């Protein structure tokens, strides 16, 4: 029987995080019960954040994944935890209205702060570091557009500094005509973060089972029933599909698609500008280049995105795309970079506005789906965990209207 979610390989090659410690989670091979208060489908960062948020020691919670937890698309993340949404605030205002766009950006900034507090409170060892973000003028926007974006962010109550070309050159030795500098971003090891959250949830009696594939879902009264490929029937008061880019088929539509991206990591202790220690960088371009420095001195970068759900499987592009990323980085910073030690590719969800979908599955009251996280995966996953918890507890989140499925 077919799975109810889109089934695909979420990444190709071996990302940097696969070789790091503290990314394993103790799991079971079969479910202990047939009925739970909550079942979470997906053991990546979204499922992990949601499980930990709901784990009060009273609810019976099950996390299931068709593969080992943490080893899906979370492993491919570059973990640039930005409060900036892929869609500039000015552009988003024209799409959904000024007030709604400002709320979305403010919620994104608040979620990064909340995630930082959460990591510290739980003592999760994942290299979490607060960062600044430098947004550079590029082919998709020059000084005029960045100046308008600066004013829009200020009007929305967001902290941001406008830098002219001379200031960018002086502070960063980068030749771009303008830039926006902001705080409230961060970086981490995403695999360690997801694993740490799952381990914390497990200590609060959350059950984690690998190798379970859902083949059908139905809502019957106040329960949701799940059929699995092994013939097992599970049921729960609430079911949350945190399946990332393997999106739920029942909500697949033209407004949500899969694109391809590529990423590289240089060897540790690469000679890099000192300012990069505290700064994430991306640019006003489509596709845009994005990069940061890791704690062990690697340059971690990505880009060369294509609106093709299969392109990241291409062996030829796995060779050519990293070379183009390295050349762009070398040209931008004026330094010679070594050959990358790690190269990988992955698919990621795309929506017209750049905002994710965090909503009830159409036609159901007790099943939720979170999907379409774009370049802000971890930030939006934090928001999803907050909204889903509020919904399960019967206290609707004031910003949930921003993340509804299109009608």
Short description, anyone?
The chain has 407 residues and is of the alpha+beta class. Among the domains are: 11-76 and 191-254 and 353-403, FAD/NAD(P)-binding domain, CATH 3.50.50; 259-348, D-Amino Acid Oxidase, Chain A, domain 2 (2-Layer Sandwich).
Shape: globular
Instruction: Indicate the mean pLDDT.
Output: 93
Q: What name does CATH use for the topology of the domain at 11-76 and 191-254 and 353-403?
A: FAD/NAD(P)-binding domain
Unreliable spans are 6-11
Helix percent band: 25-40%
Describe what you observe in this structure.
- The radius of gyration is 21 Å and the shape is globular.
- Strand 10 (about 225-230) and strand 11 (about 235-240) form a beta hairpin.
- Helix content is about 30%, strand content about 25%.
- The model is unreliable at about 5-10 (pLDDT under 50).
- It is α+β, with helices and mostly antiparallel strands.
- The strands form two sheets. Strands 1, 4, 5, 6, 7, 12, 13, 14, 15 and 16 form a ten-stranded mixed sheet that branches. Strands 2, 3, 8, 9, 10, 11, 17 and 18 form an eight-stranded mixed sheet that branches.
- Among the domains are: about 10-75 and about 190-255 and about 355-405, FAD/NAD(P)-binding domain (3-Layer(bba) Sandwich), CATH 3.50.50.60; about 260-350, D-Amino Acid Oxidase, Chain A, domain 2.
- It has helices spanning about 45-55, 90-95, 100-120, 145-155, 165-170, 190-205, 315-335, 375-390, and strands at about 10, 35-40, 60-65, 80, 130-135, 160-165, 180-185, 205-210, 215-220, 225-230, 235-240, 255-265, 280-285, 290-295, 300-305, 340-350, 355-360, 365-370.
